[in-house]
Amino acid sequence: MDNAVKYTERGGTVTITATDYEMFACVNVRDTGRGICEEDLTKVFGRFRRAAESADLPGVGIGLYLAREIVTACGGYIKVASEVGKGSVFSVFLSKV
Description:
By secondary structure, the chain is of the alpha+beta class. The chain is built from three helices and four strands.
C-alpha cells in the first residue's frame, strides 16, 4: 500500500479490494501511478531492486521483496500486473486452508 501511494501522483487513486473465494482470499492494491515497464515486472520482487525511473523517490527497494517473503511464508503468493503510465495492481492470495 505504501508503494501504491508513493508512486501515484496527486489526483490519482489507490483502491484496495478483498475477495473471498472458497479456498483462498485475494487482496488487490490498485493504483493509477507511474506503472512498471514490462522488462522490470519480473524483477520488482528482487531484494534491493529499484527501477531507474524511480530514483527520484525515497526507498531502498526492499519492501516488495519482504512482502513476497512474508506472503510466501504464510502459504500464499503475490503477483503484479502493470502498464506504464496507467498504474499497477498487486494481488496477494492467501490460503484459507
